[in-house]
Design a protein that fits this description.
Elements lengths: L8 E7 L13 E6 L6 E9 L4 E9 L5 E3 L2 E7 L3 E10 L5 E8 L5 E3 L5 E3 L4 E9 L4 E11 L3 H4 L5 E9 L12 E4 L7 E6 L12 E6 L4 E6 L6 E5 L6 E7 L2 E7 L2
Parallel strand pairs: 6-13
Antiparallel strand pairs: 1-2, 3-4, 5-7, 7-11, 8-10, 8-12, 9-11, 12-13, 14-15, 15-18, 16-17, 16-19, 19-20
Length: 262
């Protein structure tokens, strides 16, 4: 019998049937099946009882499965009529490989997935899927992607298999007007290694390319500088070595506040 410490194990067959007298050199076969319900460690004991003694046989196994953890993607503000494309990360945080087979995109007019599927993900691997945001009218937009995998149904949605998409379309610039590139900071406040500066138009107009992005503290001391080229949609700024406090990021004539927290 099993001690039933773990219901993942079951005795399927005993050959020959019991009770049975074993002569010297004879053997008996007990078939035990293991069906894990998760990816944790499972332990039990098989007790073999005889007319002289009982023998405990240890059973030990791990369940193995892939697990999907899909990120969200905020495109920030862009001008109506423009297109911006960014990478969305899908991770395998499980202990076995799985295949990202397809997706269901709720809004196929303003958002598109341009990466080719299927993609196989080993444990710990990350797939960077290219998503584009393009629209003609101003407003706030949101959508979502349900990712389809070859995972068992009980594990397919156990972590996060849905990605939320969002973005804002600002009014188009008038003919002959001078573009002014604004930007947003994500996350803000932040305490990680990097922050992301996203430019509102989805790219830097050629007329504004070559401007310098500068970060400085409340005393006006410069702590970071980067030249911005044309056709860039976003850039990363390292903040790991910054002290906790308030900083300002300036690009062209626009300055935004950023807060570094513990």
């Amino acid at each position: 019998k099993l001690t039933n410490a773990d219901t993942s194990y079951r005795i399927v067959s005993v050959n020959p049937l019991l009770p049975h007298s074993l002569a010297a050199g004879d053997s008996l076969m007990v078939q035990v099946c293991y069906t894990p319900s998760d990816s944790l460690r499972h332990r039990d004991s098989l007790i073999m009882a005889t007319d002289c003694f009982s023998l405990a046989i240890s059973l030990d196994a791990h369940g193995s499965t892939g697990l999907i953890d899909a990120a969200d993607l905020d495109f920030g503000p862009i001008h109506a009529g423009d297109t911006i494309c960014n990478k969305l990360q899908v991770k395998n945080v499980g202990s076995a490989p799985f295949t990202l087979r397809g997706f269901f995109l709720a809004d196929t007019i303003n958002f598109t997935v341009t990466s080719s599927l299927p993609i196989s993900l080993k444990p710990g691997n990350i797939a960077s899927v290219n998503i584009c945001f393009h629209l003609q009218t101003e407003g706030n937009y949101s959508s979502g992607i349900d990712w389809l995998t070859d995972l068992e149904a009980s594990f397919a949605h156990s972590i996060k298999s849905h990605s939320a998409l969002s973005g804002t379309a600002n009014p188009k610039l008038g003919v002959g007007s001078t573009p002014t590139t604004s930007f947003s900071i994500h996350p803000n406040p932040a305490n990680g290694n990097f922050i992301v500066v996203r430019f509102s138009s989805g790219r830097i107009p050629a007329s504004e390319a070559g401007e310098t992005l500068i970060m400085f503290d409340v005393l006006g001391r410069e702590v970071y500088r980067q030249n911005i080229s044309s056709e860039i949609s976003q850039t990363e700024i390292p903040i790991r070595n910054l002290s906790e406090g308030v900083y300002y990021i300036k690009y062209g004539s626009i300055t935004e506040k950023f807060v570094k927290i513990k």
